[in-house]
Design goal:
heterodimer, A: 303 residues, two-stranded antiparallel sheet, 2 strands, B: alpha/beta, D-Maltodextrin-Binding Protein, domain 2, seven-stranded mixed sheet
Chain lengths: 303, 324
């Protein structure tokens, strides 16, 4: 009992911090999204839930359903995020697997290399790409020397050879690049926790390596994969800066851009806040699914 | 320059910048920050005055207005008798391009704006200003609608159709960074402000790229022309010094230095002889169009505050366009 109180005491500053900077801030978003605007287009937040006005929320919902103004953006966002998390999975899983099980004495170094990108801010890394992928940048020259741009063009993924010219594929690649470390780290931790003896047991019982991977390691790393996917998919859903820097064209705009446009651009701040509420609800749904799956997996392991 | 003013007056000048006029406006009106001087644009003026964020100017404290500034802006359309503002810099909106990469000449077209719609070979390297008034306004001018301050849904929709066609033709980047991306070659043609070209030529040219690769065109009659404004905040506790700052910025030498050495945006100074700047090689000759002449200012068209309904109409069209 005393123990619990002590830890509660230590957790209090963090809880207060979260409370102030997340709960209060989010309540402000809700109050604006469910508020009104004055004659000078400034939002008037309605702090009292009894005064909430669902007009903007309804407008936001109408805009994201099929036929609505933002429906193409929703479809595009889902496609980009799906492509990006598939890419992150294909690139990240082997890395995490190697780092956790086969890196041997290089393990420490590999983990450091995985954390290294965090030393430079996300936006700075994206800015670096805008120079590398510029028409006469080193990156696009390199890709062109390997004929990768013409390969992508012939597959219909790239229009022309200008990577920064409003190409969806560039946005997806940048998203993968930016978020893949967030995917690898939880997966690495999860793979690292698998008991070596379980794999040995699989081998002893006659499972060839591919089969022990498919039937033992992969299922056991599922919580890690899910955690990684949630960690990357949620921020991607609200990301707007990647798109702005790598493309900037309306033909590649994502839902984060739409919200940013509403908030920055004049009389529709309340609509932007309502869109934020809507996006949060959708993401919350995925988060709950993740938590439920996690609990079920843990239940199975315990049983 | 700000330090120089500080030294002269014995004060410290602090600068706060905002990303957009909308951000500035909400912070100015809510945060209770005490600014002395606010730099803004005429289309924001009625909102700033409406919110009682500005104080009327004392004419006697800004003698440089009448002394040094073009007569056209002594009593501008947006602020008759200069009750609240003095002008800061002037610029036109037009088309800038890299003449080493694109072979166009908007001046030779019947409607110069079509140069942007025709730039299909530059797909993906075209800038459209990230500003609903400028973007839709340009589409109106291209469609032969001279009133860029209309709230008429038909005309706004016509402009939206124009922008959609532009998006189909050239897949533009919706940005305002041409001052850097045009000199760097990441865009090769685009809608931009005249000051972007001069600022790009002064500050952002990569080594080995001469300023002469950049060209500029603007619509001489009825094209967008604009100026930024300097105002004194209602909340200012040092209104006299704030006035003196406005006056300082309109001193010929200060305005000249600010133009040529820093911002690349031009002050409407009587003493500023543009031709001389080109002759002396201080500014590249290829960009002579990027300097705003007194005649061009007088013949231009400014963006004014829309009615509430008009603002909604423009915003709706713009967000539709931005959704792709």
């Amino acid at each position: 009992m005393a123990n619990r109180r002590i830890w509660g005491f230590f957790a209090a500053p963090g809880m207060v911090w979260l409370g102030l900077f997340f709960v209060v801030a989010f309540y402000a978003v809700i109050s604006v999204g469910l508020g009104n605007i004055n004659t000078l287009y400034q939002p008037i937040p309605h702090w009292n839930p009894l005064d909430w006005n669902v007009g903007y929320l309804i407008q936001a919902i109408e805009s994201v359903i099929p036929g609505g103004q933002n429906w193409p953006v929703v479809v595009r966002t889902v496609i980009y995020i799906t492509a990006a998390i598939i890419g992150a999975l294909l690139i990240g899983y082997p890395v995490a697997y190697y780092a956790s099980r086969h890196a041997g004495r290089w393990r420490g170094l590999v983990v450091v290399l995985l954390i290294l990108p965090f030393w430079i801010s996300y936006i700075m890394r994206m800015f670096a790409w805008t120079n590398l992928l510029a028409p006469d940048g080193y990156g696009s020259k390199f890709l062109s020397a390997l004929s990768i741009d013409s390969l992508f063009s012939s597959l219909g993924l790239l229009d022309g050879t200008d990577w920064l010219g409003g190409q969806g594929i560039t946005v997806v690649i940048a998203l993968i690049y930016g978020y893949v470390p967030f995917f690898i780290l939880p997966l690495f931790a999860s793979l690292d926790r698998i008991d070596q003896r379980v794999i040995e047991a699989a081998r002893d019982l006659g499972a060839p390596p591919p089969s022990s991977f498919w039937r033992v390691i992969l299922p056991m790393s599922k919580p890690g994969i899910l955690a990684g996917l949630v960690l990357v998919a949620l921020p991607m859903a609200g990301d707007y800066y990647t798109q702005t820097l790598m493309s900037g064209s309306p033909s590649t705009s994502m839902i984060g851009n739409t919200i940013n446009d509403y908030i920055q651009g004049g009389p529709d701040k309340s609509l932007g806040a309502a869109m934020t509420i809507l996006l949060s609800v959708v993401l919350l749904f995925f988060m709950l699914y993740y938590l439920r799956t996690l609990r079920r997996e843990q239940g199975e392991v315990a049983a | 320059m700000l330090k120089e003013f500080g030294k002269r007056e014995g004060v410290e000048v602090k600068v706060t910048t905002f990303d957009s006029v909308d951000e500035a406006f909400s912070k100015l009106s809510t945060a209770g920050l005490e600014f002395d001087v606010i730099v803004s644009t005429p289309d924001q003026l009625s909102k700033l005055v409406g919110r009682k964020l500005l104080q009327p100017l004392n004419e006697e404290l800004v003698p440089n207005l009448k002394k040094n500034i073009w007569e056209e802006i002594h009593s501008p359309f947006y602020d008759v008798d200069s009750r609240y503002t003095v002008p800061y810099v002037v610029y036109t909106t037009g088309i800038g391009w890299r003449n080493d990469k694109v072979n166009v000449d908007p001046a030779s077209l019947e409607n110069g704006w079509n140069a942007l719609w025709d730039a299909t070979s530059q797909r993906g390297k075209v800038q459209l200003l990230d500003d609903k008034r400028e973007a839709l306004g340009m589409a109106m001018l291209r469609a032969g609608q001279p009133n860029i301050n209309t709230g008429s849904p038909e005309i706004v929709n016509l402009a939206l159709e124009g922008l959609d066609e532009l998006a189909k033709n050239v897949r533009p980047k919706v940005q305002i960074s041409a001052y850097e991306t045009l000199p760097a070659g990441r865009i090769t043609i685009g809608q931009m402000w005249s000051g972007d070209l001069l600022s790009g030529a002064i500050n952002y040219l990569p080594e080995g790229t001469p300023a002469s690769v950049m060209s500029y065109w603007y619509q001489p009659e009825g094209g967008p022309v604009f100026n930024d404004i300097l105002t004194v905040a209602a909340a200012s506790k040092k209104p006299i010094i704030a006035h003196r700052f406005l006056n300082y910025m309109m001193e010929p030498q200060v305005a000249y230095d600010n133009f040529v050495n820093y911002v690349g945006y031009q002050p409407p100074q009587k003493s500023l002889n543009a031709a001389k700047l080109f002759d002396e090689g201080i500014l590249p000759k290829s960009l002579s169009n990027a300097v705003v002449t007194q005649e061009a200012y007088a013949a231009g068209n400014g963006f004014l505050t829309l009615t509430a309904e008009g603002e909604q109409t423009w915003e709706k069209a713009w967000s539709k366009f931005r959704a792709g």
